[in-house]
Specification:
The complex is a heterodimer of chains A (337) and B (212).
Chain A lengths: L1 E10 L12 E4 L4 H14 L6 E4 L9 H11 L2 H18 L7 E10 L2 E20 L2 E11 L7 E7 L8 E6 L7 H11 L2 E3 L3 H18 L3 H16 L4 E2 L1 H8 L4 H7 L4 H5 L2 E2 L2 H7 L2 E5 L5 E5 L7 E4 L5 E4 L14
Antiparallel strand pairs in A: 1-2, 1-4, 3-8, 3-9, 4-5, 5-6, 5-7, 7-8, 10-11, 12-13, 14-15
Chain B lengths: L1 H29 L6 E8 L2 H9 L10 H4 L4 E7 L2 H11 L4 E8 L11 E7 L18 E8 H12 L10 H29 L12
Parallel strand pairs in B: 2-5
Antiparallel strand pairs in B: 1-2, 3-4, 4-5
Helix pairs in contact in B: 1-2, 5-6
């Protein structure tokens, strides 16, 4: 795709400011160097491995201010695109509070065969040294008004499609803070600025995670791998970091080969990277019990919470199970439940 | 144009079928403990129906890219017992789908009776898309879901089967017959809702007194 429109604005945090300061900037000529830099940023961002988001549209009018602006920037004439870019810059300023550093906001538009792509970037302000050779020897200059292309606080959002009411309804985001335990930080880019929600809803994502774990447990047989899987299952239920994806779960809790088996259980690539807020009730609804069959033919079905408590698993040459408790009820059956 | 569209639509049918199956399973799982769900069904739009919709001269504006724009290529329907269940189902669906449009289809005028249903347009969630979905760029991004009561359905389906899409060209007596069926279905829903609420509040509604 060819880049045909590039704007840049210096955006100051305005969310808690007493007076609104307009963002400084406008259209920038996409020179060959600049195009190359933006292309390199695009490659580094690896958007195909980023979570998907959906615009929060009004259910009657199917409108969303950010979506409308993104589409105007993609398909509008010069003046329309300028107004849209400025609106986005101001919305970004209003989403940023004093904890945010000023940033360079760069909306860019690409085209190919009727298809348009818009990428919204923010690069946080940084301070840098510059070493120069002067007549009196080398000297260091301090550069204040520079913006980092490599900071983990840089963010991006990619939307693409055609100029139709069924298109540009969602996109992908580069946001290394999206899984932060602090809600304010996690929500800044996706919710407050882009007015989007995660495509994978919490309960659906948690059920998908549970299903992937169940499939993985059926596919791996090595006891240590299984132990790792069960430890991961317990850990995720108690983790304070609620926002996860199948990939972040695998990175945090699993080692090979369990990791690969687990990721292969995802329905597709998009769902593998889809972020969601872990919902323990929905998860437990799918994965409440661990069931053991002993050599004696005895089945033990234990709530996950009771593993290590009432039900003890002892690893060794053979895995042994010890269970002790007070009998509450009993019944006769033709087969185990 | 029709041939090209027909071919293009035929090429995607397997993918749409796969999406349909996945949606059926997911929605059944989602609603498994929700009371008063009579049935859940999904369908893939048939090629003839797709073509008819794509080329319908009444489309304003006409579809420029029907393969992307027609939103009910895969659609689902959930039938519930009571009127008040509709909202509960919609809220449950919101836990899985991003809704981009919601409309209550009902006759425009209060004194008219006819087709009623809750229509939702939802974005297709990532986890229900078949892996091959991502190899193409011309697939829809949305599906349609309808939520209605059994009585709403009891009016809508036979009427649909009779191919009465518009009432305008029907004889007056037939229109009155259909309105009567719709009014009866509407009345039955209202009555069931009253009975249900009465039962929930621990009392029964007084029976309607027959006029001597």
């Amino acid at each position: 795709m060819e880049i045909f429109r590039l704007h840049a604005y210096k955006v100051m945090p305005q969310r808690t400011a007493d007076e609104f300061t307009p963002s400084d900037g406008g259209a920038v000529r996409p020179t060959a160097d600049l195009k190359s830099v933006m292309e390199s940023n695009l490659q580094d961002a690896r958007f195909s491995e980023r979570p998907t988001i959906d615009f929060n549209v009004d259910e009657i009018s199917r409108t969303n201010q950010v979506r409308n602006a993104v589409m105007s920037f993609a398909f509008g004439e010069g003046a329309t695109a300028r107004a849209a870019a400025l609106l986005l810059a101001e919305k970004l300023a209003l989403a940023m509070d004093r904890r945010s550093t000023p940033c360079l906001f760069v909306p860019s538009a690409y085209r190919a065969n009727g298809l348009r792509r818009v990428i919204l970037w923010t690069f946080p302000r940084d301070e840098a040294f510059q070493l120069r050779s002067g007549p009196d020897g080398p000297e260091i200059q301090l550069l204040h008004e520079v913006f980092s292309q490599t900071s983990r606080h840089r963010k991006g959002a990619l939307f693409e499609g055609k100029n139709l009411r069924t298109e540009f309804l969602g996109g992908r985001v580069l946001d290394h803070q999206a899984d932060s335990a602090a809600r304010e930080i996690a929500d800044f880019w996706i919710a407050r600025f882009l007015d989007c929600i995660l495509s994978m809803h919490d309960k659906a994502g948690s059920r998908m995670l549970a299903r992937a774990l169940r499939q993985t447990s059926q596919r791996i047989e090595e006891p240590l791998q299984r132990q790792q899987l069960y430890a991961a299952l317990t850990a995720v239920r108690h983790s304070p970091r609620r926002r996860i994806s199948l990939v972040t779960f695998a990175d945090r809790y699993l080692e090979e080969p369990a990791r690969s088996v687990f990721l292969a259980a995802a329905p597709n690539d998009q769902s593998r990277y889809a972020l969601f807020n872990f919902d323990r009730d929905a998860f437990d609804d799918m994965l409440q019990f661990r069931v053991f069959e002993l050599q004696s033919g005895v089945f033990v079905s234990s709530p996950i919470d009771q593993i290590g408590e009432a039900v003890k698993i002892e690893a060794g040459e053979e895995t042994r199970l010890v269970c002790e408790g007070v009998v509450k009820t009993e019944s006769l059956r033709s087969r185990h439940a | 144009m029709p041939d090209v569209l027909t071919r293009a639509y035929a090429e995607r049918l397997l993918l749409l079928e796969s999406l349909k199956r996945s949606l059926e399973e997911e929605v059944a799982e989602l609603l498994k403990n929700v009371p008063h769900v009579d049935r859940i069904s999904f369908r893939v739009k048939g090629p003839e129906s797709f073509l008819k919709k794509a080329l319908d001269p009444e489309n304003q504006p006409p579809y420029s890219e029907p393969l992307l724009e027609i939103e009910d290529q895969v659609a689902g329907r959930i039938l519930v017992f009571f009127l008040s269940d509709i909202q509960a189902i919609v809220e449950r669906l919101r836990t899985m789908f991003t809704l981009i449009e919601r409309s209550r289809r009902r006759p425009a005028r209060d004194e008219e009776f006819g087709y009623e249903s809750e229509h939702l347009i939802c974005l297709i969630p990532p986890h229900v898309k078949p892996p091959e979905w991502f190899t193409r760029a011309d697939l829809p991004t949305t599906i349609e879901l309808q939520v209605r009561t059994i009585f709403m359905h009891a009016y809508a389906e036979p009427q649909h089967d009779l191919a009465y899409k518009t009432a305008a060209d029907l004889p007056s007596e037939t229109r009155r017959e259909l309105s009567w069926i719709a009014a009866s279905a509407w009345g039955a829903d209202q009555a069931y809702e009253r009975v249900r609420r009465g039962r929930e509040q621990g009392k029964t509604q007084p029976p309607i007194q027959e006029v001597p």
